[in-house]
Design brief:
The protein is an alpha/beta fold and about 375 residues long. It contains 12 helices and 12 strands. It is about 35% helix and about 20% strand. Strand 7, helix 8 and strand 8 form a beta-alpha-beta unit. About 35% of the residues are buried.
């Protein structure tokens, strides 16, 4: 018997339709170019806008990229985008809490705002002036207005200087008070920070972690700043000491009308001290808004996952934990489209190809998410 080939009676129109379904709906290269053009147009348009008159600090499209590899001719081969297009505003006397997983760019952003790192691109308005392009000499005059409290109180203090010497040095360098009044001025700052006067002649190694952090706070206050970047100031301390330092920061803020940029991964601490909250992921701001709005109505899937990890002190209330699968992608090689789509439980096809627009969904509530666009 001869084997006969089976004949198919499927219409050609259906075969063409199946082929159309299998054809990719997105041209990644073209889409990436389109996104970059739209982003550059947005940045160019925002550069023409005047600074917010009500804001002490306004950041627009801030970028900080580190070159990892270069060619022999000096052309970058690999770039790590530590801070990638971040924008926000902070008014005088407010506290902005920045949260996110380790490695998301929180500390780098804080140091770039203070010009400890030179920004790759973007604008940093402080008191209405764009300081992004300031030279170190120009920044010297602003050092008294912008200070930082570092994360590690052990390594941020010089071990061979006494507490008095550490606190008196910036006062003398910036001529805050006459030389004859320096010691009295330093002792007054120490008293405000809960440090005894006889600590003046002691060395950093003689103090506990909480006392060292008080010294770091006192050092920041000696030049009478307006903005203080608190880079995880309580993460290295015991819980009981954390409460003391947080209460000290709030008391000093009320007395001096300070503005804080408070960087932390502890959401309970951020909720207690902050007025506004910004959520960062892989160098980008994914959600930003007032504290109550963010905690009562978190819109981004990443924000929901972070909040679900906060322990609930009430044993009768059960909170459904959102477990994110996988690890954070490398900032040197971020995924195409939305950076969070590789771990997002609500990821759609569009998330794999097109980066979501960072836009306002409520009064002062900004989110970058395709799912939020569809729901709205």
């Amino acid at each position: 018997m001869e084997n006969k080939e089976l004949e198919t009676n499927i219409p050609e129109s259906e075969i063409a339709a199946d082929a159309a379904v299998e054809t990719p709906a997105f041209d990644d290269a073209a889409q990436k170019e389109k996104e970059e053009q739209a982003r550059e147009a947005k940045i160019a348009a925002d550069k023409l806008l005047p600074p917010d008159p009500d804001a002490l600090l306004e950041v627009r499209h801030l970028k900080k990229h580190f070159i990892l590899k270069k060619t022999l001719m000096g052309k970058p081969l690999s770039t790590l985008k530590a801070v990638d297009d971040v924008s926000f505003t902070v008014k005088s006397g407010e506290t902005l809490g920045i949260v996110g997983e380790s490695g998301c760019g929180k500390t780098t952003m804080g140091r770039t705002i203070l010009k400890l790192h030179q920004p790759t691109d973007g604008q940093i308005f402080f008191e209405g002036k764009d300081i992004a392009g300031y030279s170190p000499k120009e920044m010297r005059a602003l050092r008294t207005k912008m200070q930082i409290v570092f994360q590690d109180p052990y390594s941020s203090l010089p071990p061979r200087s006494t507490v008095g010497g550490i606190l008196a040095e910036p006062v003398k360098v910036h001529n805050i008070v006459p030389k004859a009044e320096v010691k009295d001025y330093v002792l007054q700052i120490m008293e405000q920070c809960g440090l005894r006067d006889y600590y003046y002649e002691r060395y950093p190694h003689e103090f506990s972690g909480g006392q060292r952090q008080r010294i770091c706070i006192a050092r920041a206050l000696t030049v009478d700043p307006k903005l203080v970047v608190c880079d995880e100031p309580v993460s290295a301390l015991d819980v009981s000491i954390q409460a003391q330092i947080i209460n000290l920061l709030k008391k000093i803020q009320e007395e001096r009308n300070l503005t804080y940029l408070f960087i932390s991964h502890d959401l309970s601490v951020v909720k207690y001290i902050s007025d506004k909250i910004g959520v960062m992921y892989l160098g980008s701001m994914v959600e930003f808004g007032e504290k109550d709005e963010i905690f009562d109505n978190p819109m981004h899937p990443y924000t929901n996952a972070l909040f679900s990890a906060v322990p609930n002190p009430n044993p009768d209330e059960k909170v459904q934990r959102i477990i994110l699968k996988g690890d954070i992608p490398s900032p040197a090689n971020p995924p195409m489209g939305c950076k969070f789509h590789t771990r997002c439980p609500r990821a759609m096809e569009i998330c794999k190809h097109i980066a979501p627009e960072y836009k306002e969904y409520g009064k002062g509530h900004f989110v970058a998410c395709h799912a939020c666009e569809q729901e709205s």
